[in-house]
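Budget justification note: compute hours in this period were largely spent on complex prediction jobs such as the one shown. Inputs:
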Amino acid sequence: MTTLALYSNKGGVGKTTAAVNLSYLAAQAGAKTLICDLDSQSSATYYFRVKPKLKFGAKGFIKGGEKINKSIKGTDYENLDLLPADFTLRNLDAVFGKFKRPKERLSKILKPLKSEYDLVILDCPVTISILAENIFNAVEFILVPLIPTTLSVRTYKQLLSFCRKNKYDAGKIYAFFSMVDGRKKMHKELMAMMLKEFNGVLRSHIPYLSQIERMGIEREPVAAFAPGSVASKAYQNLWSKFQEAAFANPSI
Amino acid sequence: MRDHFKFSLPDEYNQQQLTGALADHYVIKKERTVLKNMAIYDTFDWRLFDKSFVLYTSENKLFLRKLFKNATIHSVAITSPPVFVWDFPDSELKEKLSSVLKMRALLKLIGLHSRLTAHRILNQDKKTVARLVYEEIRLLRGKNAPVLATYLWLQPVRGYTKDCQNITKHLEKGGFTALKKEDIYFKAMEAAGKSPGSYSSKLKIQLDPAMRSDEATKIILRYLLEIMKINEANLENDLDTEFLHDFRVSTRRTRSALGQIKSVFPKNIAGRFKKEFAFVGKLSNQLRDLDVYLLKEDAFKAILPPVLRDDIDPLFGYLRKNRSKALKNVIRGLKSKKYGQIMQNWESFLDEPLQDQPPEASNANVPVINLARKRIYKQYRRIVKDGSRILENTEDKKFHALRIECKKLRYLMEFFSSLFPRKKINMLIAQLKTLQDNLGDFNDVCVQEKYLLNIADELPATHRKSKKAQVAIGSLIGALDREKQIIKDAFATTFTDYASSSNKRAFSELFASKQKETVP
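Corresponding output:
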């Protein structure tokens, strides 16, 4: 099983749309896939038309096992299941804190899913607290959307230095450009700079497109309702670039 | 994949009945109809059916499921129709079926054409909570071809169990009936005129203990003749090696029955047919030997050191060439006048009515149970005696002789197994099999060694490649010789187990003469 988190310590950068589309594309390619919506805002859950409710709330989530199994819903697409979000997940940090080895709780929760799924994608809320550390411990790969702006670059640097300080392997972090406006000179310059300066930045970007915003109306992955669109192709490209980087050439 | 629920349709079904049953509760969204071609496969001797497997192809994929279940166990993409398991792409499916199919070829039993129309069942959020698939299955393509079966499938979506239960309830109210013990497999087989499990190389002969021995023997021989005929008819197609193998085993069993079930037929008759079946057996000796080597190609290569592995190829090329010649010879032999006459005479003999007091056949009138006991027990004691001698003197020749005696006993026990408590006799047969496996391995190695020595002489030696092949053959012979010693060493333990006192007691209980009790 491959585990991948769509993560960012900055909000509104395109985590959820990426998580939804990448999980859809992976499932279409034949991988038995689970997308876990860890964000109490439950946007990914909304896109799949599922009620944002875990059978046993955050308390059940943290126990894992059957409690999680019973909450998993099939999406409208073959090979793709969803673990819905729940409003109580907003307190995850506090609940994790009550356990022994609080930073490894999420790894434990995900472990039993290994036999059933080829791929688990986590759609994460904005965080750099104990939940973030749980995520870093639990997954093999972290995929960070980057808007090519100075503030975004700054938060990315923060993330890398946080990892260095707390001894998390920054090698599993990959980044891609998100909400890119090709007409802006600054976007282009920053992208060129980032590709030069940082390891693990994928040569793939998701443009800023109204089609992606339409996902909120269609309540489907853009790759499903507009499979031939520019947006869909951009996610396909991102998925293949990520796979090349993560599996064929881990040193980029 | 979760299992789907299957419903039969109400009489004179039309689609409105489906929408009508659910319209008050759900939104139904019809998707476009998909056509699928399927073909079902099994071996000639129904190896998959015997294990409740259904193997079928659909749209360049091979699927395995269990009978009465819809869920796929394994599937794999294929580029050509499946024939031998060793040609399957490496996959879990291949692993699962290797030990079931072994060297038998898959035959396409029937092709099916299916038209599937899915309906998504949506809740208030327009989320799909289940799918209903209407399926029409035909033997021929085209909407006008007669329909073999129609089903309605309910495919649950994970996490929406309640909806699934509700839909089932509404459907049942609307006249749809849930089907459990039903599988299109059987309808398809019936349409193809095939009856699953109808052929097996195993002996399934039912005898009555009080029956006259000559009558019982004729039943056994008639059964063997049928197996010979079925396989003979398929030999020319050369689909796999096992038609010949089953044919030969039946021939051998026939000869063994004529020799071992003593004095049930006049001596001259039994003797004549024994000779004639020896002739029939010899017709295909060479072909079978070649089959055995070629089946072992991979195993042979595996014993060779890696540097020599490719050098042995000329040997197998040579064997393959010889095999096609040998096959032609066999087919010619089976079409010969002599063979035809033998089989015709044999069949008329089996059809002859029984005589009251046949001359020179002292056992003809004896109840078969008594004769069976006597023959089996005698043969068992002989093996124990012969085997004990081998423990003192391990000459190759003696192994060979003991192997033949064991085979005779095995056949006797199988011919008459219906006369004895099933569990007990099967256990004793299984023990004998362990001993036979040891002796059989020994024999295989000896035969292979001898054959390789012969081939080394025959292989044209002018070519540089042939010389390398000679080196490879030499290496193979060395490996076989070491294996021979290992098998010999294992014999002592295997035989001691077989001749143990508990086993002796079991044999004596079941087979030692009890004539007074059983003869009415």
